[in-house]
């Protein structure tokens, strides 16, 4: 039997992160990184969640060799946990400095990658390792590429 039903449509990717120090994590990601607050909810037993808008979302699935290669390019050694979150920004150097001032630990400073982005690696609140990246090519240059981005890291 052929299934003629339309393919499911995903409308949003939402990454849910447990943070023991909720206030510090919200202050870091909302105030220092600049993710706008979309909603906040509270419930019984001091249950709290803040939903922050993070622009366009992608899910990048890398095999172990790709993960190792990205670590080598960005940091120079294997450091990433199984899940890492990346944020595209307009100015990787200024954003990295602002996030370090807000309490992140810099693992690696902004580094030019072979795929023409400027990437830094940070340990952030809520036990997240993050990459801050700035595309060095224009949107037209990105659109005109052949789609083969060796190690292209717009990761999750």
Automatic annotation (TrEMBL):
SUPFAM superfamilies: Glyoxalase/Bleomycin resistance protein/Dihydroxybiphenyl dioxygenase (SSF54593). Residues 11-135 form the VOC domain. It comes from the Bacteria. InterPro entries: Glyas_Bleomycin-R_OHBP_Dase, Glyoxalase_6, VOC_core. This is Glyoxalase.
